[in-house]
Amino acid sequence: MAKLLQTLISIALLLAAANTARSQTTSFAYDFWGDQPTELLYQGDAHFPSDSTFLRMTKTAATGNAVGYSVGRVVYPTPVTFWEAGAQVDFETTLNFIITPNPGDTNPADGFTFFIGPVGLPLGFTGGSYGIFNSAGVGPSVFAAEFDIFSNPGVDPSFRHIGIDIESNVSKNVTDVGNALLGQQATAVISYIEATKLITVKVTAGSQVYEVSYVFDLSTILPQQVQVGITGATGGQVAVHDLVSWYFTATLVHAGAATDQEEEGYIRQYV
Questions:
Q1: Rounded Cα gap, residues 77 and 54, in angstroms
Q2: Which of 83-92, 184-193, 255-264 is predicted least confidently?
Q3: Exposed, middle or buried, 124 (CB in 10 Å: 0-12/13-18/19+)?
Q4: Averaged over 160-169, what is the pLDDT?
Q5: CA pair distance 15, 31, nearest whole angstrom
Q6: How far is CA 246 from CA 29, 96, 129, in A?
Q7: Cα(267)–Cα(14) distance, integer angstroms
Q8: Of 89, 103, 197, 248, which one is least surrounded by beta carbons within 10 A?
Q9: Cβ–Cβ contacts within 10 Å for residue 6, how many?
Q10: Bond before 110 cis per omega within 30 degrees
Q11: How far apart are the C-alpha atoms of 124 and 102, rounded to whole Å?
């Protein structure tokens, strides 16, 4: 009996070690309800105004109105391993945000993005470049999900939309959201499944739900170590961009790893 117990303990320890070796998870949660986390990196115009409980991503004047040609980013400071030999990441991130047009403004801009890019990605241009793309709207090794409330000619469709961006602010796929992202809190969930290469962006605003997806192997454009962040931007047109919360989980998945059922079967067979 003692020998059997010792064998089972040894197997359990080996399986625990194997699970540790084949999985690596990065997870965090930030609620900006009056909190000002000091461990995050705040770049550009991202700040905590005295008259708001949220993280404001773009500039506002003393009146509280939005200011033009502004961009802010919040970045998680620890690099995330997106791929390694035989492994890639599954991830899911959720952001809650509010975009508030200036009083009487019927053509506000520009919106939010969640992005993944090279560590140390320089602050990009304002407006439709969202601080992650250059003046031509290009960003090598950058993925983004955009929540775009302004239609830039030659770049965007003729409607407010959510989109999936691969190395460019010209989205690979979009979904029309009408005015749903204006003046109310929106919840966006962005996910990526390594096994299927499926990118999904889902937004809930009030009683309305919108979704867009695209199949693409992100490991073909992203470096092994990446940074993750959120941006907000204005250009010639403006709006107030407030980030309410941000949650993120990424797990490095190893191809060909034994499933729980296979491991359980191995224990039965060994015993």
A1: 20
A2: 255-264
A3: buried
A4: 98
A5: 36
A6: 6, 7, 21
A7: 11
A8: 103
A9: 10
A10: yes
A11: 24
**Cα 93 from chain centre:** 5
Q: 3-state DSSP call for residue 267? A: helix
Tokens of 158: 């003729």
Q: How far apart are the first and last CA of the chain?
A: 12
Q: What angle do CA 92, 228, 69 make, to 5 degrees?
A: 120
- ∠154-156-160 over CA atoms, to 5°? 145
- The label of the residue with tokens 């965007």 reads 156
Predicted local confidence at residue 200, as pLDDT:
98
Distance between CA atoms of residues 145 and 113, nearest Å = 5
Q: Cβ distance 100 to 94 under 8 Å? A: no
Angle between helices 260-270 and 2-21 (to 10 degrees): 160
pLDDT digits (tens, 9 = 90+) for 14-73: 444 444 445 689 999 999 988 899 999 999 999 999 877 899 999 999 999 999 999 999
User: Quick one: pLDDT at residue 20?
Assistant: 41
DSSP 96-139: EEEEEPPTT-SS---EEEEEEEETTPPP--SGGGTTTS-TTSEE
Exposure on the CB side of residue 171, measured as CA atoms within 13 A: 27
Residue 85's Cβ-count burial label (10 Å; 0-12, 13-18, 19+) is: exposed
What span, in angstroms and rounded, lies between the C-alpha atoms of 206 and 131? Answer: 28
Q: pLDDT by residue (tens digit) across 169-226?
A: 999 999 999 999 999 999 999 999 999 999 999 999 999 999 999 999 999 999 999 9
Q: 106, exposed or middle or buried, with CB in 10 Å at 0-12, 13-18, 19+? A: exposed
* Residue 36 parent element (H or E): none
Q: Cβ(58)–Cβ(235) under 8 Å?
A: no
User: The tokens 């015993």 sit on which residue?
Assistant: 271
